[in-house]
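Per your request, structure below.
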């Protein structure tokens, strides 16, 4: 692919990402073709074809899937909330329409899902992800070794694993960040490659010295969303004067209350740490809030050149029960 073609594709990708983020932020509102084409700055005559070509699903299918996935999560995390209230809050006009559409997608009614039927769906997603990780193992190892040896991007230091998770409630401030996005299975080699590519871009832009806070954002629930549709953003704090360029977009991370736990280990360990943090919730006086979890890579971030272990802070958005 020529340099000009790559630049053009990155511009398209950035516009598509803007639309995807807009959909997630406005699920309760009308999301018609004309309005979303305007967000992307594309002609509505051709936007639906461009969107399907670059994402693998139609615009209508994307909106419907995200409404259903967000509703599915809220059914589990907000047990007192009536089904109708959740349906209306994600853009469905009535309970019958929501129930019919939910059953067509998940194979069960919203009430059955809430009562435990979600476990079969989640189990299938987890099995699918395990198979992907097994097939990706050799490639993943090669990428991690290259990632560990990249002395230009990552400060080196001795990193030892923490045996006991200590959770602290913190209030995080909003942050304006530049981001690069990966769409695909969580825990795969693609995310490590994303970080390598993003770090190289940050270095070219002069954003790595002095060190700034960086973030990893998982936008989707892998127990609900198909692995190939999961979104992960590698981010770095930027000032108000920074403008999007190429595939790199800008977003504002929402501040608020988070349950935070220090993590030290390899990328293979981080999923288990997130599960452990989720297991902490039922015995606390909090529930997960309706926002994506965040990995915070502070200015003290380091990678162990022998083991590939690194340190960060896992932050789960929360609210009172």
């Amino acid at each position: 692919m020529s340099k000009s073609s790559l630049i053009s594709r990155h511009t398209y990708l950035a516009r598509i990402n803007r639309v995807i983020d807009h959909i997630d932020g406005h699920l309760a509102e009308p999301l018609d073709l004309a309005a979303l084409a305007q967000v992307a700055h594309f002609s509505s005559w051709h936007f639906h074809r461009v969107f399907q070509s670059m994402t693998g699903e139609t615009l209508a299918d994307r909106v419907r899937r995200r409404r259903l996935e967000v509703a599915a999560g809220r059914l589990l995390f907000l047990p007192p909330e009536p089904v109708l209230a959740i349906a209306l809050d994600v853009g469905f006009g009535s309970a019958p329409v929501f129930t019919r559409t939910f059953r067509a997608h998940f194979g069960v009614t919203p009430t059955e899902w809430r009562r435990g039927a979600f476990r079969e769906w989640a189990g299938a997603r987890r099995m699918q992800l395990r198979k992907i990780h097994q097939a990706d193992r050799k490639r993943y190892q090669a990428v991690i070794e290259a990632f560990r040896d990249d002395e230009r991007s990552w400060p080196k230091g001795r990193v030892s694993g923490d045996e006991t998770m200590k959770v602290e409630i913190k209030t995080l401030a909003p942050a304006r960040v530049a981001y690069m996005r990966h769409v695909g299975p969580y825990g795969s080699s693609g995310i490590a490659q994303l970080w390598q590519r993003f770090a190289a871009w940050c270095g070219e832009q002069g954003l790595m010295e002095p060190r700034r806070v960086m973030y990893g954002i998982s936008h989707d629930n892998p127990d609900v969303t198909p692995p190939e549709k999961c979104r992960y953003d590698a981010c770095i704090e930027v000032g108000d004067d920074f403008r999007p360029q190429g595939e790199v977009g800008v977003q504002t991370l929402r501040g608020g209350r988070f349950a935070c736990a220090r993590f030290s280990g390899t990328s293979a360990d981080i999923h288990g740490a997130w599960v452990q943090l989720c297991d902490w919730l039922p015995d606390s006086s909090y529930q997960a809030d309706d926002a994506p979890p965040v990995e915070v890579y502070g200015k003290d971030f380091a990678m162990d050149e022998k083991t590939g272990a690194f340190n960060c802070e896992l932050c789960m958005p929360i609210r009172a029960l």
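Strands lie at 167-172, 175-183, 214-218, 231-237, 249-253, 256-265, 286-288, 294-297, 310-320.

Regards,
D.
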